[in-house]
Automatic annotation (TrEMBL):
Keywords tagged on the record: Membrane, Transmembrane, Transmembrane helix, Transport
Pfam families assigned: MFS_1
Membrane topology term: Multi-pass membrane protein
Organism: Xylaria grammica
Protein known as: Major facilitator superfamily (MFS) profile domain-containing protein
Organism domain of life: Eukaryota
Record flagged with keyword Transmembrane: yes
Listed PANTHER family: MAJOR FACILITATOR SUPERFAMILY (MFS) PROFILE DOMAIN-CONTAINING PROTEIN, PERMEASE-RELATED
Length: 495
């Protein structure tokens, strides 16, 4: 067999050097026996652009509204502790010292511990049904918080909630990746991510109404308990909807078989693999490869640094606004609502720009950290009597959550704002500002790595004598055969 008759299409012939290097230029069905593989790649040309546009609109209508409300509600559930703090949960359950901090930290420790097994299970069952069951269960937990009487009750419930919520973001990322092209990812992800602010504004207004009613009926249920009952019930309803509607193209019932084929064909060009079949096998070689990949460490560093101030400001936001001189109810309408609104507008703007302009994602993320860094540092230096100036500076940190969050950083972040620093939390806010600056430097290094890697791959492809069309096709074939981005030299990083 000549070199021109070989191709890297994954692990079909692992003993052949060409199979592991990706350095040959043609595909023959006879050599691989991969008719299904080739059809998956060629199917993209069978449908008109008009058909794809109509299908995309249908996909958006079915997925995005439910994803928006579901993702936002989990954020509201997680943040409910901040709202309940200004309506008496600490006093009614006898919290003292740093016990309130530990309610946040315990959530994220549990989140971290259960993330690996949760993600393992998520990929082996129906994605939407898995998410729906998890949502119903954590909705029950949030509802039961209304009956908590002490710190022990609360920390157990928060830990269970963290274990159940840990897979929601990975599930949504999996769903987004299985339905949308790479250039569509940022805007769609930003759309459902804006629900962090949008749903919090909605639930904040409802919480305000609940608080008004509770204050007018002192013998009735307290505001923080009613908020738990409301959020828990809302999550249960959305979980039931997610069970029947969400999933990957292969799993949903609201597409015809031909529409499913077209939906899968749309995203073949991503060169990350499609949803044409469920892959449940665990590959140790890919695990080892992941730990050798610099991206893993960039992800870890940037995410944990961003999560430290992000989680601290999430849990303590209402208390910080209250320290400016706002009443508990004013913190919802004059504090958190404007903060979330700024975040929504900023997220949508960045999502739109990233779709229209290639390779600006890192610039947008880095620029988003500058207002957060500036606002929090200045906040720590200003006197306490500048109420509205301090309000504006704290609102600026809303843009800083664009780069991402979670687990380890969020668990530690819950301890940054210490009770002994109340009510102004100067040390914690200043530390948060500095961390945003460190995060910016980490992103700059990460983007530099992607530029160098893309340049190296382009040079190697030119040396192999491949045209851009040949490279594009090989990249798609490799991805469909479960080749990673590190193995697939034809994969190009977007940044």
């Amino acid at each position: 067999m000549t070199d021109s008759e070989k191709i890297i299409v994954g692990r079909l012939n692992p003993t052949t050097e060409a199979t592991t290097k990706g350095d040959l230029s043609s595909f023959t069905e006879a050599e691989t026996g991969a008719e299904v593989l080739e059809n998956a790649v060629d199917a993209v040309y069978e449908y008109s652009e008009g058909y794809y546009q109509k299908l995309l609109w249908k996909i958006d209508l079915w997925l995005l509204p439910l994803m928006w409300f579901s993702y936002g509600t989990q954020q509201a559930d997680k943040n409910s502790l901040s709202t309940q703090a200004v309506f008496g949960i600490r006093e009614d359950t006898g919290l003292v010292g740093d016990q309130f901090n530990w309610l946040s930290t315990s959530f994220y420790i549990s989140y971290l511990v259960f993330e690996a097994p949760g993600n393992w299970l998520m990929q082996r069952v129906h994605t939407g049904k898995f998410l729906g069951i998890a949502m119903v269960l954590w909705g029950v937990v949030v509802l039961v918080v209304a009956f908590a009487e002490n710190f022990t009750h609360l920390i157990v419930l928060r830990s269970i909630q963290g274990a159940l919520e840990c897979t929601v973001t990975p599930t949504f990322l999996l769903i987004t990746g299985s339905w949308y092209k790479s250039r569509e990812h940022a805007l769609r992800s930003v759309i459902w991510a804006t629900s962090n602010g949008g749903v919090n504004i909605i639930t904040g207004v409802i919480s305000y109404a609940i608080a008004e009613h509770a204050q007018g009926n002192p013998n009735g249920i307290t505001a923080w308990k009613a908020i738990s009952l409301f959020l828990g019930a809302l999550t249960i309803v959305l979980g039931i909807l997610a069970f029947f509607i969400l999933g990957t193209p292969r799993e949903v019932r609201w597409l015809s078989e031909d529409e499913k084929r077209a939906a899968i064909a749309r995203i073949v060009e991503n060169k990350t693999g499609s949803d044409r079949k469920q892959r449940s096998e665990f590959k140790w070689d890919q695990t080892i490869q992941a730990f050798k990949d610099p991206q893993i460490y960039f992800f870890f560093f940037v995410t944990i640094i961003n999560a430290l101030p992000g989680s601290a400001n999430t849990v303590f936001a209402n208390l910080i606004f209250q320290s400016f001189g706002f009443t508990p109810k004013e913190t919802l309408l004059k504090g958190t609502a404007p903060s979330f609104a700024v975040g929504i507008v900023w997220f949508l703007l960045c999502g739109w720009l990233s779709m229209k302009k290639p390779n600006v994602r890192f610039y947008l993320m880095m620029f988003s950290l500058i207002p957060a860094f500036t606002g929090l540092i200045a906040l720590g230096l200003l006197p306490a009597d500048l109420k509205w100036t301090r309000w504006g500076l704290y609102i600026m940190q809303s843009t800083g959550t664009l780069p991402g969050l979670y687990s380890t950083g969020a668990a530690i972040g819950g301890q940054i704002l210490r009770p002994e620093d109340a009510p102004r939390y100067i040390r914690g806010l200043t530390a948060s500002g500095i961390l945003y600056g460190v995060d910016l430097l980490g992103m700059l290094l990460w983007r530099t790595y992607y530029i160098r890697e893309n340049t190296r791959r382009a040079k190697k492809i030119r040396e192999m004598g491949l045209s851009s069309e040949e490279s594009e096709r090989l990249g798609r074939l490799n991805a469909e055969n479960d080749m990673t981005d590190q193995e697939n030299i034809h994969f190009k990083y977007q940044f």
